Automatic annotation (TrEMBL):
Family: Belongs to the binding-protein-dependent transport system permease family.
Source organism: Virgibacillus phasianinus
Keywords annotated in UniProt: Cell membrane, Membrane, Transmembrane, Transmembrane helix, Transport
Protein name per the record: Sugar ABC transporter permease
Segments traversing the membrane: 26-48, 88-109, 121-140, 152-173, 194-216, 252-273
Domain ABC transmembrane type-1: 84-273
InterPro entries assigned: MetI-like (IPR000515), MetI-like_sf (IPR035906)
GO cellular-component term (any): plasma membrane
Length: 288
């Protein structure tokens, strides 16, 4: 083990020495990282300033006085924690249902034989060409006629259709060796067992990528929750924060505190699932 580790370190050092632009790439990456971190750091410093604080010098935002009363006031006097909870529940349920439905549809299109299978797959491909905004009006009418406006079901159900997820999973299922499928069928494996125990475990990278981007899309979705939700208690963060910030159009502190409270869960999730998110981005970049 010691020799293998030392040899791998030597290989890395040799690769770095062979790349004359290695230092430049590292410096460029650090600069880009700082540019992304500066707004977050500024938001956090502004959020701990006294309410009503204003200044003409940008450096004063980073200097005392500091207070954490804004956080207690925001949590106690607003619905921001409720909006965080709504976004979390909607995102998790949407992700779970999307993975379940897309995996079943992809398995049927990949491994089962039935009439018009190619035609149905073409419809999934056509679904990628239609922007979501073009379907908002008919989608709203359908949800309204079903009596689901201003409800969790009205937020979740229209968002679980994912043509891209079906296409990605179908390509994975198509790559399963036919020998494995045929041997399982000969052993009396039903379609459900074939799906659950053989095909699905092989598609974990694809499921992770689809799940990550479904959750992120649901968390950041503004248009559909804005149209389908009327009660403030059912607002998600993308809808609730602009409503809150509009009451403080001339102030910085309380809106920044609200945004900081809303950002903390996302930052924690990113730090925990950083590797999975990076793998998902690289995966969709390669397969797309």
């Amino acid at each position: 083990m010691g020799k293998s580790n030392s040899s791998s370190r030597k290989t890395v050092l040799l690769q770095r020495n062979r790349d004359p632009q290695h230092g430049l790439k590292i410096s460029f990456g650090v600069i880009i990282a700082i540019l992304f971190l500066v707004p977050i750091i500024w938001m956090l410093f502004v959020s701990i300033k006294p309410d009503g604080f204003s200044t003409t010098n940008p450096l004063d935002w980073f200097l005392p006085p500091y207070t954490f009363e804004n956080y207690t006031n925001i949590i106690a006097d607003t619905l921001i924690l409720r909006w965080v909870w709504n976004s979390l529940i909607v995102g998790l349920i949407t992700t779970i249902l999307t993975l379940f439905i897309t995996s079943l549809a992809a398995f049927a299109l990949s491994q089962m034989k039935f009439r018009f299978k190619k035609t149905i797959f073409v419809f999934f491909l056509l679904g990628l060409m239609i922007p979501g905004e073009a379907t908002i009006i008919p989608l709203y009418e359908i949800v309204k006629n079903m009596g689901l406006i201003d409800s969790y079901a009205g937020l979740i159900l229209p968002m679980i259709a994912s043509p891209l997820g079906v296409i990605i999973l179908k390509s994975f299922f198509d790559g399963v060796p036919r020998e494995v499928i045929e041997s399982a069928v000969m052993d009396g494996c039903s379609n459900f067992k074939l799906f659950y125990k053989i095909v699905l475990p092989l598609a974990k990278p694809a499921l992770a990528a689809i799940g990550i981007f479904t959750f992120i899309g649901s968390w950041n979705n503004f248009l559909w929750p804005y149209l389908s939700i009327l009660s403030e208690t059912l607002y998600t963060l993308p809808v609730g924060l602009p409503v809150f910030n509009s009451a403080y159009s001339q102030a910085y502190v309380l809106p920044m505190t609200a945004n900081a409270v809303a950002s903390i869960p996302v930052i924690i999730v990113f730090l925990i699932f950083e590797k999975q998110i990076v793998k998902g981005i690289s995966f969709t970049g390669i397969k797309g």
